[in-house]
Amino acid sequence: MAANTAFAYLPVIVAVSAARVFGGNIFLGAVMGLMMIHSNLTNGWNAANGYKVWYMLGKGIHFGNYYLGQINVLGYQGHVIPVIIAIWVMCKLEKWLHDHVPAVLDLFITPLTTVILTALLTFMAIGPIFSTLETYVLTGAKWLITVGYGVGAAAMGAIYPVTVVMGLHHMYNVIEAGLLASKDFGNLNIWMPIASAANFAQFGACLAVGIKTKSSKRRAIAVPSSLSAALGITEPAIFGVNLRLMKPFVFGMIGGAAGALVGEWMGLGATAYGVTGIPGFLTINKPVQYCILLAVAGGIAFALTFTLWHEDPDDWDKPAAEELPAPTTVAIKTEKGDVVQPVNGTIVPASKIPDPMFAAETMGPSVGIEPTDGNVYAPFDGTVQMVFPTNHAVGLLSDDGVEVLIHVGVDTVNMEGEGFAGFVTQGDKVTKGQKLLTFDRSAIKDAGYSDTVVLIVTNKDAVGKIDKAA
User: Fold this and answer.
1) Does residue 210 contact residue 219 with C-beta atoms inside 8 Å?
2) For every residue of the chain, which 3-state class applies, written as one string?
3) What are the tens digits of pLDDT across the range 177-229?
4) pLDDT for 79-119, tens place per residue?
5) How far apart, in whole angstroms, are the C-alpha atoms of residue 368 and residue 452?
6) Among candidates 303, 310, 193, 311, which has minimal Cα distance to 255?
7) Are 430 and 383 in contact (CB under 8 A)?
8) More confident residue, 451 or 318
């Protein structure tokens, strides 16, 4: 039951997930998924060729003497595409109703109307049409894996990861169940070796990335993801590593094709479905040959990736920059004490600050500093009067009575704190040279802003004569 439940009620899981992706109400999505496997419908697992003749198995809908159409009475167990299409329509309809139904009636009318109309569209058109198309696709896939002395199997071994990316690989459970029930294939699941080859090849490619990469962050993702793929769960390896880099994904497809071809030649099959990779040894009919399949699929993908994939040097770990000591150069002199420049860099006149308000010294006597690193230090002994929530500016009052504002960058408030970090809070006592803030210069420039640090004396009338270094 634990292994089978998700597949038995797959439309419900797909419906909830699709509703979340399409921005609809997940509970309405769940209702639609449940309706599509309702006990009043003929179970889709038992329908055999039912979807091919759906137009003969419907029940008519009448309104008075008017015939409106018919309802297909087959369930959609094991189907994916009809469910996704139905939920997409449901979400579009729900959004339209939310926009047009008065708010006082929305809670009652929108859910009811959404479910009824979506159900009618689903059972009269969407379900029958797309389940039929899906059935033909799966029938074609079943034919393909047995054609051409393994060529078809190789093609499916290559294509399988693409269907994982599209989220369509769950449909293959229908093929596997049919193969196990068919005496034509000796009641063996010959699809499982193909899926195993495809999955284990993605493992090989991902592992090669994890070993070859010079990025510790990428290695931390690739190595555990590859181990997961070896156990048959490829999504972390595909979406987290291989597909992002593309070449490993393609090399995995090549390895999967080679492994699937070998598996077909050796007559591999499984006695169950739902497991691939290393756990596949529990169900495979020929364990030694299966080991060869995994070695071929994973080995080829690993070798191609390790040999032909080259990492972008920009992704390599950069050595940590040596932190400069706190600056000691006086930026502004007052009769009540000196103000040291708060960041390492070159002091420039206020007129060169790329902001009209700062350049005009509207808030008080100012200088700019073109920074050489991303650390802001206390320019004197004093008290923190204010720290902006975004950590891009801080106000201080010296023990001698000089009040200053240190503003990092121009218009950086728009970054909403991204790239900034603070180490003090309002009311803290600080000493000259103590670190107050840090900022990411590259993040500021990537956002399109200047990283010039502005130092402003905000109580000029209280501090007497002022001399600026620039």
Assistant:
1) yes
2) CCCCHHHHCHHHHHHHHHHHHHCCCHHHHHHHHHHCCCCCCECHHHCCCHHHHHHHCEEEEEECCEEEEEEECECCCCCCHHHHHHHHHHHHHHHHHHHHCCHHHHHHHHHHHHHHHHHHHHHHHHHHHHHHHHHHHHHHHHHHCCCCCCHHHHHHHHHHHHHHHHCCHHHHHHHHHHHHHCHHHCCCECHHHHHHHHHHHHHHHHHHHHHHCCCHHHHHHHHHHHHHHHCCCCHHHHHHHHHHHCHHHHHHHHHHHHHHHHHHHCCCCECCCCCCCHHHHHCECCHHHHHHHHHHHHHHHHHHHHHHCCCCHHHCCCCCCCCCCCCCCEEEEECCEEEECCCCEEEEEHHHCCCHHHHCCCCCCEEEEEECCCEEECCCCEEEEEECCCCCEEEEEECCCCEEEEEECCCHHHHCCCCEEECCCCCCEECCCCEEEEECHHHHHHCCCCCCEEEEECCHHHHCCEEECC
3) 666 766 666 778 888 999 999 999 999 999 999 999 988 889 999 999 999 99
4) 778 898 999 999 999 999 999 999 899 999 999 999 999 99
5) 6
6) 303
7) yes
8) 451
Amino acid at 254: I
